[in-house]
Amino acid sequence: MYDQIILRTREIALALIMAVSAFFQSQPAEAQVNPDLIENSGLAVNLLRGVQSPASGLIAGSLSYPSERIPPLSVFAIRIDNGKFTYYSIQTEGDQSSYSIRVDPGVYQIIAYKADLAGGYTKFVACELGVYCSDHTLLPVVIEAGDIVNDIDLMDWYAPPGTFPARPDQPSQSEITPMCSTYHTVWWGESLFRIGLQYNLTWKPIASANNLSNPNHVFAGQVLCIPNVAPTSTWKYQTSKFPTFEILSVVGNKRVTIQTNNFPPHMSFVVTMGRYGTKGINGFEVATTDTGAGGSFTATYSIPQALREHDRIAIRLQSSAGYYSYNWFYNNTTE
User: Fold this and answer.
1) CB burial class (10 A; 0-12, 13-18, 19+) of residue 127?
2) Which of 275, 265, 266 is nearest to 316 (CA)?
3) How many CB atoms lie within 10 A of CB 144?
4) Hey, is 19 helix, strand or coil?
5) DSSP 304
6) Dihedral (Cα; 153, 157, 158, 162), 10-degree rounding
7) Rg (CA), the chain
8) The pLDDT value given to residue 68
9) Structural contact between residues 265 and 228, judged by C-beta atoms closer than 8 angstroms
10) N or C: which terminus of the chain carries fewer CB neighbours within 10 A?
11) How buried is 14 (Cβ within 10 angstroms: 0-12 exposed, 13-18 middle, 19+ buried)?
12) % of the chain exceeding 90 in pLDDT
């Protein structure tokens, strides 16, 4: 009986050791990145080349080029969901009409580069390149461990200049003058004005650094250079008081009216609303208000559809000069 207990104990211990070993072998290795930043012309670009882990997946598709023959191309999978600007790349041969590139799990934009031209996987491609298609927004490609994603065809070579991000392994001219202090990946609903608020800049230097002729034409997933320029000049308006506002009235699920105090004159404020507790940060943009003579004024704003039926809502007013104020209200009628 004693020998049977000893034998059974050894069997259980061996089974536990094998289970633990199998668990660790099944875990994806942490993606490694080159610790040295890529340098060119004295400019360090914060883009790290990724090295695949055992849990990697595969992206594949067709190649094209606006000529009779396809030249050698550099194909890049640029990761946009981890904030580290990791990328993976391969070099194709002349007249190679397809590609495959292995990447770690994540969300990617896939672009081929040749000199100053770039071709990508966009909505224009998904729209079958028809004359009625006008949207050249890059489509994200989601890869999970072990995935093989086909038909990611790099055929959009006709996007307007500045639509695609610059080739990640070397700085573009816009990255050299002015130098980029950082990079920003555009989220859905963001504008250059809102992005500028996050970096204490107006929208103009950001548009210039990214060769954007239309400051309203930015899209989710686009990577923007944030130029290394002096922050927005300090406004002449100075006060020892902080701008504040109070809630005057609410019409449930429709609108809210506020009364401001100590607001600076002739300044533009972006108005956002979000869930209670967020202070309105990264909320839904509902309006832009010019303070006019400043001081105290009343304003009414519509409640976004996405926030209707929420019992409490945060509201925020913020300017590119650094002034801001926030409050919250119950989403029920008080008039």
Assistant:
1) middle
2) 275
3) 10
4) helix
5) P
6) 110
7) 26
8) 77
9) no
10) N
11) exposed
12) 31
CA-CA-CA-CA dihedral for 49, 52, 56, 59, to nearest 10:
50
Q: Which two tokens stand for residue 178?
A: 């002015």
Instruction: Return d(Cα 77, Cα 166) in angstroms, integer.
Output: 13
As given in the structure block, the two tokens for residue 56 are 């990697």
pLDDT > 70: percent of the chain: 75
Contact 76, 127 (CB under 8 A): no
CB atoms within 10 A of CB 209: 24
Q: What angle do CA 163, 166, 30 make, to 5 degrees?
A: 115
Residues 6+ apart with CB under 8 A from 229: 178, 201, 205
In the chain, the domains with their CATH numbers are 34-149 (2.60.40.1120), 173-227 (3.10.350.10), 244-330 (2.60.40.230)
Residue type present at position 257: T
Residue 14 has pLDDT above 80, yes or no: no
Backbone angles phi, psi at 300, to 5 degrees: -120, 135
Which of 111-115, 214-218, 223-227, 305-309 comes out lowest in average pLDDT?
214-218
Residue by residue, DSSP assigns 192-261 as HHHHHHHTT--HHHHHHHTT-SSTT---TT-EEEEE--PPPPPPS---SSPPEEEEEEEETTTEEEEEEE
Least Cα distance to 198 among 173, 162, 226, 157 occurs for 226
CA distances from 268 to 14, 19, 202, 259 (A): 69, 61, 11, 16
Q: Which residue has the higher pLDDT, 30 or 262?
A: 262
**Tens-digit pLDDT profile for residues 132-179:** 788 888 999 999 988 999 999 999 988 887 788 888 887 544 433 446
Whether residue 238 has pLDDT greater than 90 = no
pLDDT top residue among 261 and 251 = 251
Please give the helix or strand (H or E) that residue 9 lies within, else none.
helix 2-26
Q: Write the single-letter amino acid at 56.
A: S
pLDDT score of 117: 86
